[in-house]
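Tokens for chain A. Residues wanted.
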């Protein structure tokens, strides 16, 4: 499972080696100043929209990678039974990041407090 860590200036999503291979993506680091919105979604897998390019999608089980939407690229790392936190970004290659987490509300609060 990926791990979300924060410093006073950035949020980092540290992926496992398997997630890096499956998602064809490395760890994601986002300046806290680039986060414009933090939204909690009840089901991270269902909240994923767009075309996967590149990444892994096991329907109903796991999604890891980049999804292309009309709003831009969204990096997703989520699994079955997880709520999610969608971070809307500005000034970054990614338009948003969707993180699955067993306690999405607590993760969202940590991110909001750090901003």
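Reply:
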């Amino acid at each position: 499972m990926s791990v979300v860590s924060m410093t006073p200036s950035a949020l980092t999503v540290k992926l496992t080696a398997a997630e890096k291979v499956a998602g064809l993506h490395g760890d994601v680091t986002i300046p806290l100043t680039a986060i414009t919105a933090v939204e909690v979604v009840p089901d991270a897998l269902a909240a994923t929209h767009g075309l996967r390019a590149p990444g892994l999608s096991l329907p109903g089980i796991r999604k890891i990678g980049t999804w292309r939407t009309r709003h831009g690229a969204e990096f997703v790392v989520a699994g079955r039974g997880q709520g999610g936190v969608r971070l809307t970004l500005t000034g970054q290659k990614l338009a948003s990041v969707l993180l699955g987490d067993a306690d999405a509300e607590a993760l969202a609060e940590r991110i909001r407090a750090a901003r």
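The chain has a mean pLDDT of 96. The longest strand covers residues 51-58.
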